[in-house]
Amino acid sequence: MLRNWFTLTLVLFAALGSAEAQVSRPVRLTTADDVGIAGVYYPVASGPAPAVLLLHGFERNHTEWDIFPTSLQRNGIAALAIDLRGHGESTRRLTAEGPELMDFHRFTPRDYQDMLLDVEVAMDWLADQPGIDKDRIGIVGSSLGANVAMRYTLFNEDLAALVLISPGIVYKDLRTDDAMQKLGPVPLRIAVSRDDPFAFESCKRLMELRKQAGHTSDTNELIICTGYLHGADMLRGVRDLPTILIDWLKQTLSRTPAAPTK
Q1: CA 250/CA 226 separation, integer angstroms
Q2: Is residue 134 part of a domain?
Q3: Would the pLDDT of 15 be above 70?
Q4: Which pTM does this prediction carry?
Q5: Which residues 6+ apart lie within 8 Å of 125 measured at CB?
Q6: In a domain? residue 257
Q7: In the chain, how many domains are there?
Q8: In a domain, 178, yes or no
Q9: Which residues pair with 95 in a beta bridge?
Q10: What domain range is 43 assigned to?
Q11: CATH label of the domain that carries residue 186
Q12: Long-range contacts from 194-197, C-beta under 8 angstroms, 24+ separation
């Protein structure tokens, strides 16, 4: 009987520990142009910790990441998954005439360009969170979100890591080729499915531009997966991809000891 009680106690403690690791909370942010951005934050228990911002694909929202944020969390990486403007719960802008509905079905190219403001407010919020090391923040983008992330690098060269899943040379007038030509030595991983034609050809071109820019030391920047899955669907359908990306993020976002002074 005592043995059974002890076993039950261990099971309960394990369950409580698992629940604690899964804790998350909703976040509401306001961009510089008064758009309300909704998201979910997955903090970690100890800090200062690294963090990543998750940007979903077209017609999706933060839920497309499924268990990926909690997997990051369990590996000591905080995560913030937001709904980009016009998607999910990020559908209202405050104007002088009152709230204005934002629907991606009616978006112009300018509206997609303004998604960079969503990224800006989210990155600033992450950097201000207790327990977050503001020098170890990266972005993971899926499809359209990958292109948004790539455009953001033109305005922020201090990213600690960048993961692009199924980016395109252009999605919704958001180009990546010019940004890749200007991308500095930011640690980079790109994942794409071989049978996802436009994304696959786009990624090959992006790697050519990366090489032309002189960043040729890391030959593993492009991860080519079998199949046809696109964007964050690859994280659910390609068995080892989440582990590969999380392990790389853990290594890349680890604190690097300062060089000894002379």
Answers
A1: 25
A2: yes
A3: no
A4: 0.89
A5: 27, 29, 80
A6: no
A7: 1
A8: yes
A9: 98
A10: 25-252
A11: 3.40.50.1820
A12: 194/224, 194/225, 194/226, 194/227, 195/226, 195/227, 195/228, 196/166, 196/228, 196/229, 196/230
